[in-house]
Amino acid sequence: MWDPALYGRFGAERSRPFFDLVAQIGARYPRAVADLGCGPGDLTRTLAERWPLARVTGIDNSPEMIGKATAQGGPVGFELGGIADWHPEPDVDVIVTNAALQWVPEHRELLVRWAGELISGAWIAMQVPGNFDSPGHRALRDLAGEAPYADRLAGVVRANPVDDPEDYAALLTAAGATVNAWETTYLHLLPDDGPDHPVLRWMEGTALRPVRAALDDEAWTAFRAELGERIAATHTAGDGLVALPFRRIFVVARVS
Q1: Are 122 and 92 spatial neighbours (Cβ–Cβ below 8 Å)?
Q2: What element of type H or E holds 204?
């Protein structure tokens, strides 16, 4: 279950890659724009501001996220649905998917399929986190592999579900697209202003979601406390801030 409030922590840090991604899309007057994995819809609404003549639709498989998105109203439509099952309608000229494809094991095949289904001149823009080798994620994998959690978390915590930029570029170039691919490491300075470590709070909004779903309340409380201690040992505070380097992978492709 996705929690919009947890995900909404550190909103400025989470939204910056979205704007950096969308800035590289060259579409001027798209007819329809799809935001796949739209979450609570705040960023989806900015697509309608950029392309006011387009029909903008956000799709997400979380009822909680879609409920939050639709409650705000506005010129954007929102639909409950999975990315893997989605197909572009004939007038879709832009697909945006921001920090979502890492949850879809078959996303490489989806990118190739979308490139074949879209009309010539359409755009695919994707961003995924590339920080799965960070200290926090290594601590998460190590703890999940230990007793008493290993059996309950087998297959839940993933090593690295995404590729490097050059791999995505090769994939979409082979599918006939013109590709712009890059990576950026953002340095987030998170305020150390609460009882919990800020990197732990960050991870609760995304990476820890499937772990929370797999554990009962007692096991989750113990797991969270131990993980917080391990994270604190590798992410120390200075002047009330904790530095979190965060690598992200971007691909913008124009279909031929």
Answers
A1: yes
A2: helix 198-204
